[in-house]
Amino acid sequence: MAKMRLLMTSSRRIVVTGANGFIGKNLCVRLRELGYSDVRRVTRETSDIELASYLESADFVFHLAGTNRPPTEAEFEQSNTGFTRKLSAQLGSASHRPVVVYASSVHATRDTPYGRSKRAAEEILLGHAQQFDTQVHILRLPNVFGKWSRPEYNSVVATFCHRLTRDLPISINDGPLTLIYIDDVLDLFERVLDGSLSRSSAYPEISPTYHTTVAEVAETLRGFREGRRNLMAPRSGAGLVRALYATFVSFLPPESFFYDLPRHSDARGDFVEFLKTTDFGQVSYLTARPGVTRGEHYHHTKTERFLVVRGTARFGFRNIDTGEVVEVTTRGEDVRVVETIPGWAHNITNVGDGDLFVLLWASENFDRSRPDTIRAEV
User: Fold this and answer.
1) Is residue 114 annotated as a catalytic residue, yes or no?
2) Which end of the chain is more exposed for a tag (fewer CB within 10 A), N or C?
């Protein structure tokens, strides 16, 4: 089945207009990942003759070219409507009738120069579809954000990410904001390619979208920046925050691909906090020299999980009520988690010949005002 799919994708010709733009770059990468080898990239440097040759045997056309912030209003008509008119004329002259996908905008319903130019482009493509009985999908996209977007051009998210990752000020004109993530746009494009996007309407449903405000996005992005300083990790596993975080870090300049952590060292070894969370504790690591014992305390509520990565450790436990004592010895190669229990004093001793290296997860961030850490020897 995989071989048949590869043969099918390799034999299809796909034309991408605006291939050097934000959405175009991401789409071309996705097409390569899907195994499409005949992808013709249309840019501002592509001649009319080249465009006509690309369209002659195209199976799909993703029309992404256009402008939304030109220096003059006249360029709206030229870049959005005029180029679409030329594209439609060349499609009409071609012997093949490809499926056309047009990246329009929610602004197409508004009476602005940009909105009118996008709506006129839509009408041109709808007329082409009716005349030649072809499929046209018009995607009225809200603000698209993601990696490789242009600050001061594609979206406020791109502008904020660019400026915050460089410690520049941002200006917030608050108001409602509807967003769609670039990977979700590419998923819509992929559904066109595999035939699963509904053909009942030229205007398919656009989802998932995120409804937020400019101020909320700014606050979230500021939190990402501060998290590199206070070690707070965002809840970035799903939804809008996941997509915003991926976009934020994609704007980091190479010199900011790393940051240093504070190291607490003494005669016993090192202790380094790696990251903290709002509701899932924190991750750290510790080292201990041969013969060194660390810990010697208990907790009432806090729990910890230790993973010995290198060396050999003996964990000691004593029930502070009954006096019962338990010992657990584990080595790095055991891949074993040792968990501390409320009400049991515990310690960890390096019983190996070399330095001990241990990962540590604590169920809550350390709070100096209420540390829940009571000194007690095992």
Assistant:
1) yes
2) N
